[in-house]
Amino acid sequence: MKINTVVYMSLCILMSLMLHGCATTNYCTVKTKSITLYNDHTIPANMGISGGVYTEVEGYRYVNIFVEFEQKTSAEEPVALGVMFAHSQNGKWGSRRYFTFDQNFSGMADPQMITVTGKASWHGHPHDKSSYIARLPIMGPFLQVFPFNHHNEARKLSIVLYLTE
Q: How far apart are CA 151 and CA 141, in angstroms?
């Protein structure tokens, strides 16, 4: 009698998993994707760059933007990153500024720039690099990043997006 109960309960659990799409790992995993935007790309001194390409991020909820750049000393200026979300692949209806309102917000609000900096992210010797990750909610179906080298020498940088559901 007890063995029948165990078999019956096991079948019920299996059927429940199958009905909810979790009988195989293909349906249970979270949708993720990595996209390399720059890989050891040289960025000139005191200059920002734009690849001119908007990456489709529709269907994801968050983007983790990994930035790594050369840095010989902690006194060097960082590489900052501007982020723009747009509603078309050519950047139409896009913005680098956003508003966020707390519950029961009252009064005037100024738009915020979506800009992050690598200040104080130096790994030290012998690595001679800095890195940081910015996690943002997806605020449009297309995204573009704009790295800016604040240092007075050219550097190499890498930027990788990690998209999650």
A: 32
